[in-house]
Write a structure and sequence with these properties.
156 residues; 68% strand; binds protoporphyrin IX containing FE; mainly beta; Lipocalin; THAP4-like_heme-bd
Length: 156
């Protein structure tokens, strides 16, 4: 089944991506992780998105899930649930060219009463051939917008 027409610009993301990542933030120790992202077509005008990560010893680290929508030409939305008590409403742009795809988002964040405070996030996904590179920054726990994550994945 073909994805919905609105998803044509991001159809190249469909499938499973896996690779290595590294993270930092001014308030924590640097770390590395294995990252996996899966985009699935469910037959509706959005892709389901799930991310999982593991430490070097195989222990689960972060996971998040949500939906990728392409509401209009050149625009993209990623609606995300975070297990640490946040939801992210990430809005931005999609630029699809012959051999590359770039998605950039800035998110408003809602925090539960018990969550560590995350005020805003920025995400970038760059697909070139079978390589997907992600970066993530956040304004959180009193820090201004600062880099937290970078991962470099291949299609599996
Ligand atoms: C691959 C994905 C991610 C990994 C591997 C990861 C890993 C980590 C690690 C190891 C820490 C320090 C220890 C801890 O508090 O658990 C941390 C802290 C934190 N992360 Fe992430 N993280 C990821 C994604 C995210 C995302 C998407 C957000 C926000 C939406 C986020 C927000 C935070 C916050 C608020 C802290 C606490 C900082 C502090 O207490 O000073 N992380 N993360």
């Amino acid at each position: 089944m073909e994805p919905a027409p609105s998803l044509a610009p991001v159809a190249a993301l469909l499938g499973t991506w896996r690779g290595e990542g590294a993270g930092s933030y001014p308030t924590i120790e640097d770390f590395t992780y294995t990252d996996e992202v899966v985009f699935t077509d469910v037959g509706k005008p959005f892709l389901h998105y799930v991310q999982r990560s593991w430490s070097a010893d195989g222990s689960p680290m972060h996971t998040e899930t949500g939906y990728l929508r392409i509401p209009g030409a050149g625009t993209a939305e990623l609606i995300l649930a975070q297990p640490m008590g946040q939801t992210e409403l990430a809005e931005g742009t999609v630029v699809a060219e012959a051999d590359s795809l770039v998605l950039e988002f800035q998110a408003r964040v809602a925090n539960s009463a018990t969550a560590k405070q995350v005020d805003a996030t920025r995400r970038r996904y760059e697909l070139t051939g079978d390589r997907l590179v992600t970066t993530f920054a956040m304004a959180a726990v009193g820090q201004p917008m600062t880099h937290h994550l970078h991962s470099d994945m291949r299609r599996v």
